[in-house]
Every structure is written in C-alpha cells, then in structure tokens.
Design goal:
By secondary structure, this protein is α+β, with helices and mostly antiparallel strands. The chain is 33% helix and 17% strand. It has a five-stranded antiparallel β-sheet. A two-stranded antiparallel sheet has the order 6-7. A hairpin with a 2-residue loop joins strand 2 and strand 3. Helix 1 (4-16) runs parallel beside helix 6 (159-171) and helix 3 (30-40) packs parallel to helix 5 (76-89). It is globular, with a radius of gyration of 16 Å. The two termini are 30 Å apart.
C-alpha cells in the first residue's frame, strides 16, 4: 500500500526541484520490504513500509540533490548495507557517553534503521529499540559528536510524524533551495 503523505511529498518535490525529483527511486517491492524486516528482526512500522512502497529512497544522484536537508534517502538495499556496516564497526553492547533519555546510549543498536544520511554521516535513524522514555519507531539524528540526551535529539515520535513534518514544510515553502539542496528555514533535520 502506498503512502498518501509520501505521494504528496513526491508531488511537492516535483514542483520544487526537477533535479531532486529525478533522484527518487521507484517503489520497493514487497520482497525488498520483507527482507528489511527480516534483517531488522522486528516489525517495521506500517508507515515506513508504506513509504518504501511509494518511494524506495534516492539514487546515487541524490548525493548531489538530497531530499532531507543535506541527507540522501536510502533505498532498502542501502539501509541493509548500512546496518551491516555499522554492525561490523560497532559492538552493539558498547555504551556511548551520556545519560540515557529517549535514545539508548549505545554506539550502535541492531534495531536502529538508518534511512538517510549525508555521505554516511549525520544519519536519520528510525529507532526500533528505544529505552523506556523513547517511542518505538521514533526518528532521531545520529550526528558525530551529537547530543542524544536532550529532548531535541528526537525529531519525531514516529516515521508518520516525521513524514507529515516534511510535507508541512514543503507545502508551506518553509525552506530555500541552495545549490540544489532543500534547506529548511527552521533547520529541521539539519
């Protein structure tokens, strides 16, 4: 099932930038979405599956014309590839510095789903492993040296809320286009 919010986001992007629109991949197949769920090992929120059934991230040209600030959206294969890479680099039991609040203070969790990033850094994470103060499916930004403790670390309590926030900013034209990049006026997801 496709996502009506993401169908509208695609329409908005088409009106804003033909370059960004050209980077959007066709929908993911049901088999690709199932492979992602198998890799994660838990149920992926329906809103995320519906998004992937609408747009399977951005192609490589998205590095030059990203959709979410300077971050390019990953397709299912890249999400799995990034999860595998991060799992190989970080011990999933190793604790990061800081006090736990809404995000686990781990270097990496096997149930974090990186769905967008700027050149492999500054990733947007859908969190399927939140601690007691967090929300299953919340979206947060994993930035090198970034603060995971504050309430502002979480961008949205769900992928659906994240998507609605993106659409609202696009519809209200609360951004500027700088060298082919959408930069939000409030530095949301910056």
């Amino acid at each position: 099932m496709t996502d009506p919010v993401w169908r509208e986001i695609v329409e908005q992007v088409q009106g804003v930038s033909a370059d960004i629109f050209a980077t959007l991949n066709p929908p993911a197949t049901e088999a690709e979405i199932e492979a992602l769920e198998q890799r994660v090992g838990v149920a992926v929120p329906q809103a995320f599956k519906d998004y992937l059934a609408t747009v399977n991230g951005q192609n490589e040209a998205g590095a030059e014309y990203p959709l979410v600030g300077y971050r390019r959206l990953y397709g299912v294969a890249e999400i799995i590839e990034q999860m595998d890479l991060l799992e190989s680099l970080f011990d999933a039991t190793e604790v990061a510095a800081g006090a736990e609040n809404k995000i686990r203070q781990l270097l990496w969790s096997l149930r974090w789903v990186p769905f967008a990033s700027f050149e492999g850094y500054d990733a947007l994470i859908m969190d399927l492993d939140p601690p007691g103060n967090g929300v299953y499916g919340q979206v947060w930004s994993l930035s090198p040296g970034g603060d995971r403790e504050g309430d502002d670390a979480v961008l949205a309590e769900s992928f659906e809320e994240f998507s609605v926030g993106l659409l609202g900013r696009l519809k209200a034209r609360r951004f500027k286009l700088e060298n082919g990049v959408i930069v939000f006026e409030d530095y949301w997801a910056a």
